[in-house]
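Quick board copy: two proteins, each given as sequence then tokens.
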Amino acid sequence: MRKLLFLLVLALLVGATAVWLLQFGSGYILFSFAEFTIEMSAWTGLLIYLAATVLLLWLLLSWRWIAGAGGFRLWWSTRRSARKINQTAEGLLLFASDDWQQSAKLLSESADKSVMPVVNLLFAARAAADNEQFEQARTILQRLQATYPESRFIADKALAELHLLEDQPLEALQILHTIYTKNPRDKALLRLLTDAYYLADDWVSLQKLLRDLKHYKAISEQDLDSLERDVYCNLLDSFVLDSARPIAEQRAKLEDIWYLTPKKRHKDPQVIASYAASLGRAQSPDKQQALLVKALNRQWHPELVKQFGELESPSPEKQLLVAEKWFVQHREDADLLLALGQICQRLQFWGKAKDYLTAAVRLRPSIQGSICLAAVLEKMGDSKASAEAYRQGLISALEEQS
């Protein structure tokens, strides 16, 4: 408002000054060139001069705008940016279409001109890896590390993932351990560490990592539950008796592993099966039998039944009594029938063993059942029936392979 008022006052002053000057005469201007002569009043010449000056200034300012950031330069810059974005988008679309070779080529070649060079190089490396061009992918990632040092962490993770795709978990772990100390909360890094430990069969390190996976919610609860089961099963399965060390010491080590296992896993049939098998390797059949009986009374599971049947108990009569009690409720269970047949076979109760094993094979033909039945029949002197049982076992083996 003040500017408008100032301009009005200035216009009035200029007008008044012009009127005052006109009182002294208008004057004139004579312009002559060759045969042309132009004559005009001084005021007309002044108006023409001012109009020409204003026009020249307008033309200069317009050119400056066109050539500057607001005009042609902006248009050209926008056009180049759009072209770069289109190249990146085309490369990403090729990646999504599984055209990894063309995607890697386009994204890599356009990276230096792209407005998102890190994205270009990351997806170019991934496309090359998916195309099993691992050396090309490694070269692209090394280029990313050298050209954009601020993206080194992302490049290192991608390089570690590349080693995992090549089934090189130890090489991946070398990289991951270096960056983990500075980024212990990174979820993607935790998942990569999980995969690397898993592929390397490093169950001890993976067991220590479970707490962070849960705390930072790096994986879903369902995946965490499955991973935890695998970890403790493999920790127990990895127990092997060493004849060079005292057996009592090794049994204590096995008990330490079981003690470290979460309490809720003590009721997990798969974990119990692994622990029971380890007790068998530790030459603790009494403890193994007690564990299996307790677990099966609580929850029926075929793997536990199978182990119970294969267990060479120091008290097989008691083992048979327990199994026959279960048989009252599980008469059509092929695993239990096989287990009963195996126990009777060890007790040399040939008649009962034949009945149980025949029923087991009838319910579910299996190699193990046929072999046990053939051995029992041979002991009973029925060579023809024994040969037939062996033949059925061979048929079952061929069917399983096919």
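And the next:
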Amino acid sequence: MNPKFTLLLAWYYGIRTISRGPSYIIAALSTPLALLFLVYVLSNGALVRYALVGGFIAIVASVALQSSGDAAFFRLQLRIQDLYVASSVSPSDYMIGLTLSYLMFSLPGIILYGILGAIYHLFSLFAVLMLILVLALLVLSTSSISFIISSSIKHIRNIWGIAGILSVLMTILPPTYYPYESIKRIFLYLLSITPVTPAAVVAQYSFGLSPAMPAELYVLMGETALFFTMARYLTRWREK
């Protein structure tokens, strides 16, 4: 492991990106905030707490999934990975560094939703601790999916559309903005192939919004380990 490289990469592509391009933050927040507004209006405020809890998950997942375009751009256009092949930097160092940068890039949205959640008195110590755990697992699993996708792309022009479609499908179809109890259990199990679904189920229970489904936490942990392992061994490190 190379923690110095990992932290520097996370700082440069996370915090520095926020300072260099504030418009990117607005773009990342636009869809979650628009959906929050729609949920508030259409449900007359009844589902706003679900939407606030789901907003944390949607922001982290969408940023990580859409960043597959950045990972593909670094590999195909900038050839950054080629620079690290002969160095002490391992694929895991590179992946974890970019994953942390995605989490840092999500911080403005997390803070904004934290303020809104405080207004609605959502937080307890248990809820905060579980939210931290869920978001940590979620950013690792979704960024691993991004690495897998970006590594399979041969032309940079193909990645942006794929990333946008996946971001919408994996953050809106799962029960992020609505109670997971409102869909049949069979569909919930099918949606659990994406880590966003078990993350939303665990978060809703942690905030006292829905009954517990303890198995979903194990599903999230298992998917995180699986996707990270797949990304570690499937991600192209050397370009032929």
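Board note added afterward: The mean pLDDT is 86.
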